[in-house]
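User: My instructor asked us to take a sequence, write out its structure as tokens, and then describe one feature of it. I'm not sure where to start. Here is the sequence I was given:
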Amino acid sequence: MGFFNLLNIAATGLSAQRIRINVISSNLANANTTKTETGEPYKRKATIFREVFEGEFKGGVKVDSIVEDKKPFILKYEPGHPDANEEGYVQYPNVNPIEEMVNMIESTRSYEANVTVLNTAKQLAMRALEIGRG
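Assistant: Let's start with the prediction itself. The structure tokens for your sequence are:
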């Protein structure tokens, strides 16, 4: 694996995890949104990654798509809520805040690992240049 491939893999990982963190943040922000423009509750979204095999850089990852979760909405009995149906139930988004926080921690750790790879590669390159000077 070449030096630039290493940098490319880490950079694509950073980019993909940044997008994933944004999607997770959106899920958390809309965890109680009972009505969107479509008239339905917010639907949880997830990022789908795929490996990259393009050009001279072999490896890396990118976001292939952002998909809506197919899990059913959460029903809560709240007869006084403006979005309650005839039986008094309100449909809430299919977002589990605890699951989203675990996903956020996982994504953040992955992001940090890619930053560490980039910093280590930079340090190794600088040391190689110092050896070349001496």
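For the description part of your assignment, you could build on this observation: The longest strand covers residues 57-68. Try explaining in your own words what that tells you about the chain.
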